[in-house]
Design brief:
By secondary structure, the protein is α+β, with helices and mostly antiparallel strands. The strands form 9 sheets. Strands 15, 16, 17, 18, 19 and 23 form a 6-stranded mixed sheet that branches. It has a 5-stranded antiparallel sheet with strand order 2-7-6-4-38, with no helix packed on it. Strands 3-37-36-35-34 form a 5-stranded antiparallel sheet, with no helix packed on it. Helix 1 crosses helix 10. The protein is globular and about 70 Å long.
């Protein structure tokens, strides 16, 4: 592995991912906010396969209500979401795109719509209306926060199709890691309802401060990949709690916690000195009625006791609940324990899986560190301090996987806790899959080992020294603020078999494969799952490649002592300078019984390497029929190239024959109004119908109990904009 190829590849990462349009497209009866009708996609090369079918859903962050406009762009809805230098590309409102292949005689069409949970309307009103400017949301790394209102649920990461009965049409969830999943109408793309009321979810971390009501939009940590079992018709997800000692270095912005404490202190000063004007901090202005001495004393003691109890949770408040939902009733939940104690998640449960008999949770290699949540400061001296602060606090992701295995039969309604087995697998993973069948309690796990490659690290202004001239300035290229940093070692694919009863690996030496030419940054996968197979035979992975302008000194320093290193840092540097292109590959998993002892189950059976300067994301398998054959279909993916000035905006849809990737795309689609940036996960639905399910949580019932404790300003915002689902487009509408 110490011999790098001599080819010079993809030296320049496509800048087209830096800008994105927030325009919505669809029929007016479905979406009143649609700018135009669904876009009829142009065929750039090849032909649309006539046996392409169904609908491909893609979700992507598209910046926020206050993202900087792209100056000089023909549409004022095009923005540069990460141009502030500290916002990652995966922070932003979710946009759902639906590619329709159900009328190929007329062509392929694209509809799109923003995901708009209640916090979206609060964000829009606070941005446009001067009355609410003290409530405005701001970006802090992956999160978007308003001190008085809480944290945005951006719903920009993944989907879960649901079908709880044979008679109902397919339903759809939009998800992300820090917020409740929301149900989306597959036909209109309207945001309909959260899964579970606010009271059914516990906040990830909370310290009660005397006199300070909770924020309306709670910080809820869950999984971006809930699971649906089509055979038992059950949906599973998680609700994660983190003690402050666990969280500080990973998820909740220190500035946000300090602000909560300072708000409380300033509120006290206001009371003592009878200060009415709010100069520095937004404080709740509650109407106070005269209280008796005994009532004041009782309230003070209760508040102080609440504060002490919350403070004790600094070290103890770790929890994970398994949640089960039937599509119509309340959430059922069980606290997960290991050896009698609540399990402690140090990073996230970005991915989980369900087999016939087990639920699997992974402490995923997707961490969000405190230093990545720093806001942009304009003073260069402050910026130097921020850079020092980031380098001092940052840490590498955990290099070993902690899997927790829960037996589904233990999820009994009369119980409140459930025990888990724990197994450690070397080599961190961000995404994994599991075979549905687990014969003899043997669970087969399929991992992409993203070795020393950290999706929680992205390029920011701290990675550039303004005192030095770089190739960017020489070539007049914009900086790649917000893009995920490049890998610091080669990645691997692994197939691991675990005994669900004992929590032990079945083989000491597991099946692992890596390839110096191909396995660089395996990000997202897809496979044939209609019908759901008993075991996985072929998994399609996109690998993002190596790009010189995504390599940072910070990543080098962070992973220089990586414990499972395969390639030296010197060789990594040489490979990155030469480049490795993005690719789409098919990983074949042979059945264990077909192999001789010692043979590797894994092989790269087919691969397509993209041209220099092209970057691929969001693959989706589209079956030709219901044959269940793992290669009988097409792979639809998003491809980016160039600087966005091309008539295609540097964004195209490429379609591959799943049985013959190497021959290249059979069709390329584009449209001048189709302008994407960083897309994430996808799903496929055979037939789109309007949602008919009766399950729906009313926003007023969901939030009013907490809103009534807030300032008149917040109550007015909810009554005028949030509950009514209205959005001021300009200040004059306020």
């Amino acid at each position: 592995m110490e011999n790098a190829t001599q080819e010079a590849l993809n030296p320049t990462f496509p800048r087209s991912v830096l800008s994105v349009s927030r325009d919505e497209f669809g029929n007016k009866e479905d979406n009143p906010d649609a700018k135009d009708l669904p876009l009829k996609m142009n065929v750039k090369e090849g032909k649309l396969p006539l046996d392409l079918q169904g609908h491909v859903f893609i979700v992507a962050p598209v910046g926020s209500i206050d993202s900087p406009d792209a100056q000089g762009h023909p549409t004022n809805s095009t923005v540069y979401p990460s141009s502030d230098g500290t916002t990652p590309l995966y922070n932003g409102d979710g946009m759902i795109y639906r590619l329709d292949f159900d009328n190929l005689q007329a062509g392929a069409f694209l509809a799109s719509r923003l995901v708009k949970p209640p916090c979206y309307y609060a964000d829009a009103a606070a941005d446009q209306c001067p009355t609410y400017h003290d409530l405005k949301f701001k970006n802090y790394g992956i999160t978007r926060i308003s001190g008085p209102l809480g944290v945005r649920n951006q719903l920009n990461t993944a989907f879960v199709p649901l079908k709880f009965s044979q008679d109902e049409s397919e339903r759809l969830l939009a998800t992300w890691d820090v917020g409740r999943p929301y149900e989306i109408d597959p036909k209109t793309l309207e945001t309909v309802t959260p899964v579970g009321s606010s009271d059914e979810w516990k906040e990830v971390t909370k310290i009660g401060l005397p006199g300070k009501p909770p924020t309306p939009f709670k910080i809820i940590q869950t999984s971006a990949h809930p699971c649906f079992d089509p055979y038992t018709r059950e949906m599973f997800t998680v609700n994660i709690g983190r003690s402050i000692s666990n969280v500080l270095s990973q998820l909740i912005p220190l500035a946000y916690i300090f602000k909560e404490i300072l708000d409380w202190i300033m509120h006290g000063f206001q009371k003592i000195f009878n200060i009415k004007k709010r100069n520095l901090f937004t404080l709740p202005q509650l109407e106070e009625k005269p209280l008796s001495v005994s009532k004041k004393l009782s309230t003070t003691v209760k508040s102080f006791w609440k504060f002490l109890r919350g403070s004790a949770g600094i070290f103890t408040d770790n929890f994970v609940y398994i949640l089960r939902w039937d599509g119509s009733g309340s959430l059922q939940k069980w606290k997960v324990q290991h050896n009698g104690f609540s399990i402690k998640i140090k990073q996230s449960i970005h991915q989980m899986a369900v087999t016939e008999d087990y639920i699997l949770l992974l402490d995923t290699a997707f961490k969000v560190s405190l230093e990545e949540l720093l806001p942009t400061l304009t003073n260069k001296n402050y910026q130097r301090f921020e850079k020092f602060f980031r380098n001092f606090l940052d840490r590498p992701q955990l290099s070993d996987n902690s899997f927790y295995i829960i037996r589904r039969s233990d999820l009994k309604p009369e119980k409140s806790n459930v025990s888990a087995k724990k197994v450690n697998i070397p080599g961190e993973a961000a995404h994994f899959l599991a075979d549905y069948k687990n014969p003899d309690d043997l669970i087969t796990l399929h991992l992409s080992h993203v070795c020393a490659w950290d999706a929680g690290e992205y390029l920011s202004e701290f990675d550039f020294d303004d005192d030095k001239t770089t190739n960017l300035e020489v070539n007049n290229l914009p900086r790649l603020y917000g893009a995920i940093a490049g890998p610091m070692d080669i990645s691997k694919f692994g197939c691991h078999v675990v005994n669900g009863k004992t929590g032990k690996l079945v083989k000491e030496h597991q099946d692992v494969i890596m390839d110096e030419k191909y396995t660089w940054g395996p990000a997202i996968c897809t496979y044939q799952q209609h019908p759901l197979p008993d075991r996985l035979q072929d998994i399609y992975w996109i690998c993002l490649g190596c790009w010189e302008d995504l390599k940072t000194q910070h990543m080098v320093d962070l992973y220089k002592n990586y414990k499972y290193r395969e390639l030296s840092l010197k060789l990594i540097d040489d490979i990155t300078k030469k480049g490795r292109p993005s690719n789409l590959l098919r990983l074949h998993i042979a059945p264990q019984e077909s192999l001789k002892e010692g043979d590797n189950r894994l092989s790269i059976a087919d691969v397509y390497q993209f041209p220099d300067g092209y970057w691929v994301m969001s693959p989706q398998f589209v079956p030709r029929s219901d044959s269940g054959i793992s290669t009988d279909g097409y792979i639809v993916c998003l491809v980016h190239y160039g600087d966005g000035s091309d008539e295609t905006n540097g964004n195209e849809v490429w379609i591959f024959d799943a049985a013959n990737l190497n021959s290249g795309p059979v069709c390329k689609l584009w449209h001048p109004q189709f302008n994407l940036a960083f897309t994430i996960h996808t799903t496929w639905v055979q037939k789109v119908e309007k949602r008919t399910a009766s399950y729906c949580i009313d926003p007023r019932e969901d939030y009013n109990k907490i809103v009534q404790q807030q300032s008149p300003e917040i109550q007015d915002l909810f009554n005028k904009w949030v509950y009514t689902k209205k959005e001021p487009k300009r200040e004059a509408e306020c």
